[in-house]
Amino acid sequence: MTPGIDTKRIVIKIGSSSLTSMNGEVSRRKLEKLVEEVVRLKDDGHEVLLVSSGAVAAGYRKLGCLTRPDSLSERQAAASIGQGVLIETYSDLFISHGYVASQILITRSDFSDENRYNNARNTINVLLERGIVPIVNENDTITMDFLKFGDNDTLSAKVAGLVDADQLIILSDIDGLYDSDPRKNEDAKLLTKVNEITPEIEAAAGEPGSSVGTGGMKSKIEAVKIAMASGIPSFLGKSSTNSIVYDAVDNNAVGTYFEPQEDMEELNQKKQWIAFNSGPEGEVTIKPSAKEAILENHTSLEPSAVYSVNGRFKKGAVVKIFDPTGEEIGLGVVNYSSKALDQLINKIDVDLEKYEKAAIESEQLVCHLDTSVLTTV
Ligand SMILES: Nc1ncnc2c1ncn2[C@@H]1O[C@H](COP(=O)(O)OP(=O)(O)O)[C@@H](O)[C@H]1O
Ligand SMILES: N[C@@H](CCC(=O)OP(=O)(O)O)C(=O)O
């Protein structure tokens, strides 16, 4: 390990356009460049996890399609071919440098179940601690469209939160975030440092630039918001730039650095799971006085603060919390089932012992988050 370098845990996301050639084949040369950069970081003692797209892009030609297919089943079939080709190439390249790669395919339902989520963390921790390079992709072949993460940008931010990464590096075909879509405005300027995702930035972030990219700048900004809320700094840069990954870790690369604000409340692992992965099962509406208490003082929510309950959920479920005007305040984990909570607020067969517990404890409340981040759950 190079003297003076602290070991960092780094998650690198690379997009389809950065891994495949124009004719829909895995580009060994592009993968080689990435692997060589990861190897430099590994030689310095860092832990590196890759979130790699490219399964569909690397497989559709071999499936017999001339362009990226429109139908879901053809894309899933293409991913089934391309994922194998990708991992074989990565694995070969890492072995030639003395490192071992592993494959992890994730579906959104793996993350919405807290036990499976924690299990994924334990497995990845073992791999990282033993020097392996885990390579993560969405399990495209078996995931239904409406159950997908949808894009690997948000997946990479969620994975970075899962493993408590020190930095998220997103590599694309563009050298950072511009103040407007550079394809539409030739005067667009590169933003080198961003501390807050403002509505202007969201408006500037447009659609994909290539026929194989899926998320475009929009999903990269969503990803960065999740990383920021989890206290993880991110970098966005161009995959083909020389030494981009190494320089990004060194804070010395051309691109956009996203730094979480110092006074921002950083979500702990439990709250990250609630906010970004859980998938709410019901709704509670609370009284106006309780809204102030949870937003200003972060206090627990007593059953007496609950105005009404919507949906059927079990004790321990994640629910959305609304104020009486219908504005969404945040998310929380309930200590009562919907039936018990309904009985408590209507004082039917009230079990006083149970009543002493808060309906939602403050450490299981996620408030203050921008609704557009919350809606990504
Ligand atoms: N404000 C913006 N700044 C930079 N790029 C933008 C912006 N708005 C839209 N884009 C487009 O987003 C593209 C990158 O997203 P995408 O095509 O999904 O790449 P990847 O396959 O790497 O995920 C860029 O090539 C660019 O054309
Ligand atoms: N999971 C898909 C990629 C999804 C995705 O986000 O693609 P991209 O916008 O190229 O990062 C695949 O491997 O083809």
TrEMBL record:
<feature type="binding site">
    <location>
        <position position="152"/>
    </location>
    <ligand>
        <name>substrate</name>
    </ligand>
</feature>
<keyword id="KW-0028">Amino-acid biosynthesis</keyword>
<dbReference type="InterPro" id="IPR041739">
    <property type="entry name" value="G5K_ProB"/>
</dbReference>
<dbReference type="InterPro" id="IPR036393">
    <property type="entry name" value="AceGlu_kinase-like_sf"/>
</dbReference>
<dbReference type="GO" id="GO:0055129">
    <property type="term" value="P:L-proline biosynthetic process"/>
</dbReference>
<dbReference type="InterPro" id="IPR036974">
    <property type="entry name" value="PUA_sf"/>
</dbReference>
<keyword id="KW-0067">ATP-binding</keyword>
<dbReference type="InterPro" id="IPR002478">
    <property type="entry name" value="PUA"/>
</dbReference>
<dbReference type="GO" id="GO:0003723">
    <property type="term" value="F:RNA binding"/>
</dbReference>
<feature type="binding site">
    <location>
        <position position="53"/>
    </location>
    <ligand>
        <name>substrate</name>
    </ligand>
</feature>
<keyword id="KW-0808">Transferase</keyword>
<comment type="similarity">
    <text>Belongs to the glutamate 5-kinase family.</text>
</comment>
<dbReference type="Pfam" id="PF01472">
    <property type="entry name" value="PUA"/>
</dbReference>
<feature type="binding site">
    <location>
        <begin position="214"/>
        <end position="220"/>
    </location>
    <ligand>
        <name>ATP</name>
    </ligand>
</feature>
<feature type="domain" description="PUA">
    <location>
        <begin position="282"/>
        <end position="357"/>
    </location>
</feature>
<comment type="function">
    <text>Catalyzes the transfer of a phosphate group to glutamate to form L-glutamate 5-phosphate.</text>
</comment>
<dbReference type="GO" id="GO:0005829">
    <property type="term" value="C:cytosol"/>
</dbReference>
<keyword id="KW-0547">Nucleotide-binding</keyword>
<keyword id="KW-0418">Kinase</keyword>
<comment type="pathway">
    <text>Amino-acid biosynthesis; L-proline biosynthesis; L-glutamate 5-semialdehyde from L-glutamate: step 1/2.</text>
</comment>
<feature type="binding site">
    <location>
        <position position="13"/>
    </location>
    <ligand>
        <name>ATP</name>
    </ligand>
</feature>
<dbReference type="GO" id="GO:0004349">
    <property type="term" value="F:glutamate 5-kinase activity"/>
</dbReference>
<dbReference type="InterPro" id="IPR015947">
    <property type="entry name" value="PUA-like_sf"/>
</dbReference>
<keyword id="KW-0641">Proline biosynthesis</keyword>
<dbReference type="Pfam" id="PF00696">
    <property type="entry name" value="AA_kinase"/>
</dbReference>
<dbReference type="InterPro" id="IPR005715">
    <property type="entry name" value="Glu_5kinase/COase_Synthase"/>
</dbReference>
<dbReference type="InterPro" id="IPR001048">
    <property type="entry name" value="Asp/Glu/Uridylate_kinase"/>
</dbReference>
<feature type="binding site">
    <location>
        <position position="140"/>
    </location>
    <ligand>
        <name>substrate</name>
    </ligand>
</feature>
<dbReference type="GO" id="GO:0005524">
    <property type="term" value="F:ATP binding"/>
</dbReference>
<keyword id="KW-0963">Cytoplasm</keyword>
<dbReference type="InterPro" id="IPR001057">
    <property type="entry name" value="Glu/AcGlu_kinase"/>
</dbReference>
<dbReference type="InterPro" id="IPR011529">
    <property type="entry name" value="Glu_5kinase"/>
</dbReference>
<feature type="binding site">
    <location>
        <begin position="172"/>
        <end position="173"/>
    </location>
    <ligand>
        <name>ATP</name>
    </ligand>
</feature>
<protein>
    <recommendedName>
        <fullName>Glutamate 5-kinase</fullName>
        <ecNumber>2.7.2.11</ecNumber>
    </recommendedName>
</protein>
